[in-house]
Specification:
Chain lengths: 189, 232
C-alpha cells in the first residue's frame, strides 16, 4: 500500500517525503492493522496517528482512507473539522496564542498576526526549519494574565505586540547558548 | 398509496401532485418560483441549508423550508407574504455577505442563480446592511487536474458534493474546514488516479448555481476572453 502510494508521487513530491516521514508512514501501516476497517474507526485512527507522531502526514491520510474504505476528501473533510488535528509536524518551539474570551478581548488576534508576520508562517503551520510552529488555542486557563501566549511549556503573560520580537529573541538566545554549551562540552572531552 | 394524486393550494392556485412529494419541486414544476440553492431534483434527503425556500403553511406555527416539506391533501401554502420575503431577504444577505460579487469577470455571469435570486428578492449582490466578510482564501484553487474552484464565489450549497457522492467512485470533493472557513475541498485529487474520470464527468460544474466550480478548459478560454476585452 505504502509503496503504491509512493510510486504515484512525482519526483519533487517523492523528494519531499524525508526519512522521518517515511518512518512514520511505515509505522502507520502497522498501526492501521490494529483497527477494524469500519468508518466508525476513522476518528480513533486519526487520533492514534496524531498521538504517536504529532501530526497527520499527507500520505497517512491516503492510507487511512483506504483502510476505512472511504475517499481521501472525506477523511480530509473530517480531519479539518476538528481543531485537534494538524497536518504539519510540530516545531521544536511550539507557540500557542490564546484566543479565549479574555485574551480575545485583550487583542490576542493582533498577537497572532504579529507572530505570523514575524515567523512568516500562518496559524497551524510550521516554519521550514521546523524550529517554530504556530497555533491558536481557546483558553489556557490563566485569563488574569491576558493576553497570554504559551511558548513550549512556558506561559508568557501580558504579551503586547512589541513583546513578540522579545519572545522570539529569547528562544534564539537559548538555542545559541545550548549550541555553545555543546561545543564547549565537546572540546573539554 | 404514493401514486395518489392530491390537491394542494399554493398562493390561491390549485395544484394536483403526487402525495408524499416534496413541496419545492411541485411548485417549481407549476411555474411558481421559489428561490433555492441547495436543492437538486431527486434528492432523498435535502440538506435545507440555504434557507431561501421558506414558505408559510396554514396550520404551522413557523415558516418551513419547502424543499424538505412533504405535501399532504388540502395543504394551503403561501410563498409571497411580506414575512416570507423578509425572511428570504435576510437569508440572502447572509449568503452574499461573504461573496466577492465580482460578476463582470465571472464565468457564470448572466447564468448565475445568485443573480436571479437577487433580482427576485430585490436585493443587491453586495449588501450594505451586513458587514462584508472577506474570507481568507486565494482567488482560486487549481490543484485538481481538470477543475478549478473559486472559494470566494462559493455559496457552499453542497450540490457538487451531492452529485459527486452519487457517482460510483464518488466523493472526490467534500466539505472541509468549519464555520466561516468552510470550503469545498478537492483535497487529494492531485495524486488520486481516479480524478482522471473528472475530465469527462464534470457533473459538479453543471450543478454549481454560481461560478465557483468550473472546468479548467472552459475557465481558461473564458479568462483569456475577459483579458482580451479588458485590453480593448
Amino acid at each position: 500500500m505504502l509503496d503504491q502510494l509512493l510510486a504515484a508521487l512525482n519526483e519533487t513530491e517523492r523528494a519531499a517525503v524525508d526519512e522521518e516521514e517515511y518512518n512514520i508512514l511505515r509505522a502507520v501501516v502497522d498501526e492501521l492493522l490494529t483497527f477494524s476497517r469500519d468508518i466508525s474507526q476513522l476518528i480513533p485512527i486519526l487520533q492514534e496517528i496524531q498521538g504517536k507522531h504529532g501530526y497527520l502526514p499527507r500520505l497517512a491520510l491516503d492510507m487511512v482512507a483506504d483502510h476505512v474504505q472511504t475517499t481521501i476528501s472525506k477523511v480530509y473533510g473530517i480531519a479539518t473539522f476538528y481543531n485537534q488535528f494538524r497536518f504539519n509536524p510540530p516545531g521544536r518551539n511550539p507557540i500557542k496564542v490564546c484566543l479565549g474570551t479574555a485574551c480575545h478581548v485583550k487583542g490576542g488576534e493582533i498577537l497572532l498576526e504579529n507572530f505570523e508576520r514575524r515567523l512568516q508562517i500562518k496559524e497551524g503551520e510550521t516554519s521550514d526549519d521546523r524550529e517554530y510552529s504556530l497555533e491558536r488555542v481557546a483558553c489556557i486557563g490563566c485569563c488574569a494574565l491576558a493576553p497570554a501566549v504559551v511558548v513550549g511549556e512556558k506561559v508568557e503573560a501580558y504579551v503586547t505586540p512589541s513583546k513578540v520580537e522579545g519572545v522570539i529573541t529569547e528562544i534564539e538566545v537559548r538555542k545559541e547558548m545550548a549550541a555553545r554549551e555543546q561545543v564547549r562540552n565537546e572540546e573539554s572531552q | 398509496m404514493s401514486d395518489n394524486l392530491i390537491t394542494i393550494t399554493v398562493d390561491e392556485q390549485k395544484i394536483k401532485a403526487l402525495a408524499g412529494a416534496f413541496l419545492l419541486p411541485v411548485c417549481l414544476e407549476n411555474d411558481i418560483y421559489i428561490p433555492n440553492l441547495c436543492f437538486l431534483k431527486g434528492m432523498d434527503d435535502p440538506p435545507a441549508s440555504c434557507r431561501l425556500c421558506m414558505v408559510e403553511i396554514a396550520g404551522e406555527d413557523e415558516p418551513v423550508a419547502s424543499c424538505r416539506c412533504r405535501i399532504s391533501e388540502g395543504m394551503e401554502v403561501k410563498t409571497n407574504s411580506d414575512e416570507i420575503l423578509r425572511l428570504r431577504q435576510l437569508a440572502f444577505r447572509l449568503l452574499v455577505s461573504t461573496n466577492d460579487g465580482s460578476c463582470r469577470t465571472c464565468i457564470a455571469n448572466h447564468g448565475c442563480e445568485l443573480q436571479k435570486i437577487a433580482k427576485f428578492l430585490h436585493q443587491p449582490l453586495r449588501t450594505k446592511r451586513l458587514r462584508h466578510i472577506d474570507r481568507d482564501y486565494p482567488k482560486f484553487i487549481n490543484t485538481h487536474p481538470f477543475l478549478i474552484y473559486e472559494p470566494k464565489k462559493c455559496v457552499l450549497c453542497g450540490r457538487c458534493v451531492h452529485v459527486c457522492g452519487q457517482l460510483e467512485k464518488g466523493y472526490k470533493l467534500d466539505f472541509a474546514q468549519r464555520g466561516m472557513d468552510s470550503i469545498v475541498s478537492l483535497f487529494g485529487s492531485d495524486l488520486d488516479p481516479a480524478s482522471q474520470d473528472c475530465e469527462t464527468c464534470l457533473a459538479c460544474t453543471e450543478v454549481c448555481p454560481v461560478g465557483a466550480l468550473s472546468s479548467k478548459v472552459k475557465w481558461q478560454s473564458f479568462t483569456a476572453e475577459i483579458e482580451a476585452k479588458a485590453k480593448k
